[in-house]
Amino acid sequence: MDLFRCSALFTIAVASTSPVVANAAEEQDLFSLSFEDLLNVQVDIASKTNETLSSVPSTISVFSRKQIQALGVDNAYEVMNFVPGMQSTRGDWVGAVPKDHARGVYLDSGNVLVMINGERINESSFGKASVYLPYIPVEVIEKIEFIRGPGSALYGSNAFLGVMNIVTSKERNALQFVVGNNGRYGATGQINRIFSDNTRIFANFAYEQKDGESYPQGVKDPLEAIYLDAGIDYKKLQLRARYNETSLDEFLNLAGYSKQNQHNSDNTFVGIKYNWINNDKLKLDSSYSFTKHNISSAGLIATFDDIPDFLVGPAWQTTDSKFETELSYQFDNQWQLAAGIEYSEAKQTKAGVRTSYYDFDSEQIIIDPAFEQQGIVSVMDFPEFSSLKFTFETLSAYGQLKIPYSDALTLFIGARYDDVKDIDSKLSPRLAGVYKINSEHTVKLQYGESFRTPVTNELFSNDDVTIGNPSLRSESIKTTELVWHYKTSELQANAVLFYNELNDFINIEPTLSDDSLFTFTNSFNTQNSGIELDSTWQSSKDFSITGTYTQYFEDPINASFKRFASIISSYNLSDSWQVSLNLLWRDTVEVSSETGAHFKQSAYSLLGGSLKWQLNNNSQLMLKAENLLGKKYNAFDPRIDNGAVAGTTEELSLHYQFNF
């Protein structure tokens, strides 16, 4: 490992002395996107109208494929660490699953909506997208768009503190192969074929396997992941399909480290979309999608001196069906309307248990040698989980007007209404004014409301860890933002002041009857605020640097980072060599629990980056590094006895790409 790390540092240090090889075509170059292109990148996630970063009525961060590759990261969730107001770390429930921190909130309950190509991943049992889809390889990604702040006015539940939309590749033909430390290897590919003006197909695939790093707790963090997506466009018809499967064993699961821990999840998605009308004024689409989520997991709960360990976890399946019709209309006075109606059905269809102790006669988990199962068994009809088989029916309607009030001022007015049968109904309005002072300065004043519907685990769980609360209400938030955007031919900068009013937040608390069990409550109303800064300076066509900084004015909800920052620099050493370095910085986290346990993680920095060598017009080599210096650190999670979850260690990998 030390040899691999030193080799990476040495290679980056001496790369500028390497000879120049044949020039690669600009289209193949990893950083060929000009600064002007970056400033004018099209964003439609935040308004469903085509906007740039200057005109969009939300706080937005966008990462192109080339920018993502330069970061040296492997998983889409890791890109969050370079977004102001967002972070991604490990934590319980399954420790190796990414956990979201957003605008001072780390409650691990699905407060960030994750989408792939505009289709939601968050589902109805746990709410967190990463539980069912924890690994999304960056090689298949073309772009990631982030909304920082509320998005429920367009996307409903879970678009609470942010939205991440991952756009996969549709126009590339390439193969990539990877080898790395910790027994890592894998392959990915993208295929695109145009058969006629009316017909095209595309597909992405990825396979990744890793033995994992060894940890002092006596476990590793292995990974095995498969990702596939494909699509057919024929005239006005679009067909889409996706499948992924991920295994994360051994590492922390349900607050216990054990080589016996198991976690496997998979998703299957199919969708169809038809364009009824598409002209200069009116566009009308209808779509149907179906997603099936499976999870099979078991974590260490208790160890004993005289009998085998006790492990337990879910064997659950949920499905999501959605019908949607949406339109956009351009009025003669240049006003634009975006509107839609949606019916969705989210259902938990299986609610079994995986356990190492079980009495099949009484249908109960009984920790006694007589009921030890010589391993982990799956019981698919577990009576105590029967209440989890619940169906959420939601009828939604939304609309938004874009009003060009003058050459300088554009107004956005919109709202979405969601009626969740037998649970709750919510109206989520949004208002925004975008004022262009001159060609360089733009200011925005934005207001939005969002919500998150409680999920079946919070409402009806009944296991050895949590007890559900069927009286829960939806969480809600009201957000006001003041944004300043500045751009020139060499520099762009953003400053965002935000203020949140958070109501009916759902948190875990010990039950009154047993301190070792947790339940869910609408435990508090609060406010938080902060400032988010980011800027990009391109001093020449060969060098650029981006910096971000986030400062919260109040302590985060559940201990998390109050301040954090990042720096990303990229330099073209020649026509064929490029080096990128990035640095993540996180402030101290210190907390004492009611049980007397004390957690402290001092401020730390993580170094990463990439080095690319363009071999010729069609192939390239890339060395990628995360946590290059091997920093040892912990993330905080309130459900761990001492609060400490081991952070990710160094990841070093060599990638070969061939374009065809």
Q: What does the secondary structure layout of this molecule look like, with pairings?
A:
Elements: H1 2-14, H2 35-39, E1 60-64, H3 65-71, E2 86-89, E3 99-102, E4 112-116, E5 119-120, H4 129-132, E6 141-148, H5 152-155, E7 162-168, E8 174-180, E9 184-194, E10 199-210, E11 223-234, E12 237-247, E13 262-278, E14 282-302, E15 310-330, E16 336-357, E17 372-379, E18 391-404, E19 409-420, E20 424-436, E21 441-452, H6 456-460, E22 466-467, E23 475-487, E24 491-510, E25 518-540, E26 543-552, E27 563-572, E28 577-586, E29 589-592, E30 598-601, E31 604-616, E32 619-626, E33 634-636, E34 644-646, E35 651-659
Parallel strand pairs: 4-7, 22-25
Antiparallel strand pairs: 1-6, 2-3, 4-5, 6-7, 8-9, 8-35, 9-10, 10-11, 11-12, 12-13, 13-14, 14-15, 15-16, 16-17, 16-18, 18-19, 19-20, 20-21, 21-23, 23-24, 24-25, 25-26, 26-27, 27-28, 28-31, 29-30, 31-32, 32-35, 33-34
Report on the structure:
- The chain is mainly beta.
- The strands form five sheets. It has a 22-stranded antiparallel barrel. A five-stranded mixed beta sheet has the order 1-6-7-4-5.
- The longest helix has 13 residues, at 2-14.
- The protein is globular, with a radius of gyration of 25 Å.
